[in-house]
Predict the structure.
Amino acid sequence: MSDKQYVKNILCIGAGYVGGPTMTVIANFCPDYKVTVVDISRERIDRWNSDDLPIYEPGLKERVLKARGQNLFFSTDIDRGIDEADIIFVSVNTPTKTFGEGAGRAVDLQYIEKTARRIKASSKSDKIIVEKSTVPVRAAETLSKILHSGNNSVHFEILSNPEFMAEGTGIHDMENPDRVLIGSMDTPSGRAARDELIKIYERWVPREKMVTSDLWSSELSKLVSNAFLAQRISSINSISALCEVTGADVDEVARAVGKDSRIGPKFLRAGLGFGGSCFRKDILNLIYLCEHYGLQPAADFWQQVIAINDFQMQRFVHRMVAAMFNTVADKKITLFGFAFKPDTGDTRDSPAIHISKMLLKERARLWVTDPHALNNARQDLEDVEGEIVYEPDPYKAAEGAHAIALMTEWDQYRSLDYRRIFDRMEKPAFLFDGRNHLDHQALFDLGFNVYAVGKPDRTRFNNDSQ
Ligand code: UDX
Ligand code: ADP
């Protein structure tokens, strides 16, 4: 198709975990729209144009191959992309600030601001700008101020359209969303821009799932959705600590509690705590907002969600060390999984990073295995002192180990031959299941000492048969 035959030109700035999959789905459902994804990283763009995509997400590759070169393009020519675009999605990274005021809490907006300046510099016609990255409340206002500063006659209409997809199920979530949220200004041009975006989504999303609101409420809703989800995880994890000391089983408690239709069963899986690029960052951002507006008790409330998450990881390591006769120094410990959740290679803020660091401080020798995250794991731990070996084969990784600690609930870890693994481990053999993923009774019957989150220990030390 020549450019003239496309209904509209869509540009996405930022070819990461959000931008790449989102645009792929749009391109698949809207073959008459030209969708271009740009990034400052040439390496990323080269990989999007190759068979070795920069991110692993089930179902992504076949959808990229279907549209790439037809109506989906990946490029580093950002200025040309901006010039040609009618609608620009902004999905650059918005990490937590590591310096200056608000360090450790506020969002670092430098990437968003640089993007806004570049859009302004390269635009010769009116455009719709869609915030896709998670941004602090009222970021649209900042964007608008930068875009409309100086004597530029071009008009930019800002929309907020937060992404709710979860990694590992990103394509499914995008294709079957619970809702599509669009925030806009309540002006004729704001409503017209919103309708342009609805036109795209209605190709595959039923109208009743489109939620429209004002810009600020839309921005805040994204933070609050993630904060509520994380809060549920911390709630059940706090109970898991109580279960371990009182002999209750946290999965039984979650099952009973989740049957209450007002509570519901989802996001009540106790484990090592939440990881990923969003939860911690968004809660910190919410805390920063509360503090900024002088709402300290509200800030303290959300701070506790993070405190419990940290406590959960510390407790896990503490339990490991205590079980292994109060020392793991020089012992080989094998981590099964490193990704922050299964079906992704993403390790951002993965509990496995924090747990590895704590175990290395205790001078354990770490062997890490994961089907998709070993390259990221290597980068995450490159500056950390201690012995770390990365081994894709779980059997080799566990050979001669004193303990296995399961970090990520990859499906394949359920169907391993644990008899074979047990036979080649040091004895007594320990298994710490950080995601309550394995068959604990079967493992215990094989001879393992099994420790699961929020469950009584299954050890062989009283009636020892080792
Ligand atoms: C999350 C939100 O779900 C998504 O809507 C938003 O767009 C981005 O942030 P994501 O971080 O990709 O998605 O994954 P999610 O499935 O939410 O899991 C986050 C973390 O919570 C993982 O580390 C997971 O292991 C943990 N988790 C999740 C639990 O520990 N227990 C649960 O019951 C659910
Ligand atoms: P997310 O999970 O929010 O998608 P990622 O870090 O995966 O975050 O992706 C963000 C992408 O945005 C990165 O590939 C980064 O190179 C890109 N990026 C950051 N700043 C700019 C910019 N000014 N112009 C274009 N791309 C940018």
Summary: The first strand starts at residue 9 and ends at 13. The pocket of adenosine-5'-diphosphate (ligand 2) is lined by residues 13-19, 39-41, 44, 78, 91-93, 111, 114-115, 133, 277 (CB under 6 Å).
